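Hello forum,

I keep getting stuck at the same step: I have a sequence, I want structure tokens, and every attempt I make locally crashes halfway through. Rather than fight my setup again tonight, could one of you with a working pipeline run this one for me? It's a single chain of 125 residues.
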Amino acid sequence: MPYHKNELSENDKIEIVKLYKAKMSLGKLSARYKVGVQQITDALDEAGIPRKRNKKQIASGWKDNEKRPDTITVTKATPEYFDYLTDIMAQAGRMKGDPVANYEMLSKQNPFKGIKRHTITKHRK
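Reply #2:
Ran it on my machine without issues. Output:
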């Protein structure tokens, strides 16, 4: 039997609204009713229930009268550094002994000192 069922009954939707108002999280509701989080949020939207936001910046950041910026600046690992990390993790796992200790030993030989991250600007869609 699959973990997720496809539809929520009307009684399920009413109960979801009650539980959500009683501070049950979307993830817990999803697990309880064996549906995806999207189906839970759809049920809340149908009932006209505004969803809570965990992050302060999301809750108060973009109010209705504010315009979101067209671009965002992101700092992330360079593709080369990310490839290097995944390679040494795999190598550490194949070596004899403790994988964590192996990884720490291998990462001391890091050829990417000072160039681990780069900043890019993304355009919003």
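The first helix runs from residue 10 to 21. If your local run keeps crashing, start a new thread with the error log.
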